[in-house]
Amino acid sequence: MPELPEVETIVRALRDGGRGGPSILKKQVQSVDLFWERTLAEPERVLFDARMPGQIVQDISRRGKFIVISLSQDVLLVHLRMSGDLRVESGGEILPHDRLGVNFSDGSRLVFNDARKFGRVWLVQDQNRITGDLGPEPFDPDLTPEVFYERLNIHRRQIKPLLLDQTFIAGIGNIYSDEALHLAKIHPMQNSAELSLNQADTLLESVRAVLSEGIRSHGASIDWVYRGGDFQNTFRAYGRTGLPCPVCGTPIARLVVGQRGTHVCPQCQILFSADETMGRK
Hints:
Elements: H1 4-16, E1 29-34, E2 40-42, H2 45-51, E3 57-63, E4 66-71, E5 75-79, E6 84-90, E7 98-104, E8 108-114, E9 120-124, H3 128-131, H4 145-155, H5 159-164, H6 174-184, H7 197-216, E10 253-257, E11 260-264, H8 274-278
Helix pairs in contact: 1-7, 4-7, 6-7
């Protein structure tokens, strides 16, 4: 957390204005403040301080869970990890968990706040050096059901940990994997190589559906980490332990899959054996 919909919401706010702040497009960097050294993954601080001033924000986009701020010379990459957030403001006090500030020539600033200190920032010339190992975007038109099915078969892993693997598909985390698997009626422990082509098609559609709804709802706000989302109000499975499944009424169960808390309907999401799945391939 935050995942693709939350990151996309922040990207759109930085690009178009929103979440209480203006767009940062075309703003010129005047100076930078680094309040916690480890927030900056690279380069060294002295080079960061020297390269940032004078650069102009050309574009803001997303790759997986990375926020990509294209500058006139470099690319500023931000990964929010567990508790990161970005805000744009004019003046104001530095808050307790602020880790980095980018000050613009018009007096506004972009601030990276991160209570748990896991988030990181990179200033690079070649973005692919950091993001090049990421898997395809969920909405990539080249990610067809047939391609997705072949990728599932190659990896032969439990489906939920595979969906969380950013080198397999970029941007999905714990919330949206639970929601997509419930919508697709696939057990999170099912081996990916045991899914049929029809199931792969359904799962891909479900991934895209829950991510699209998450974006429309401005993400999910389930604690103090991320603000302004509404998707938590329509959760199907995530965080609903003991509550009735919206499809069949069976109480949602909580499992641990791949060391992650996982929410599943025991009735809708049945774990099939390899022998049982062979006839459905």
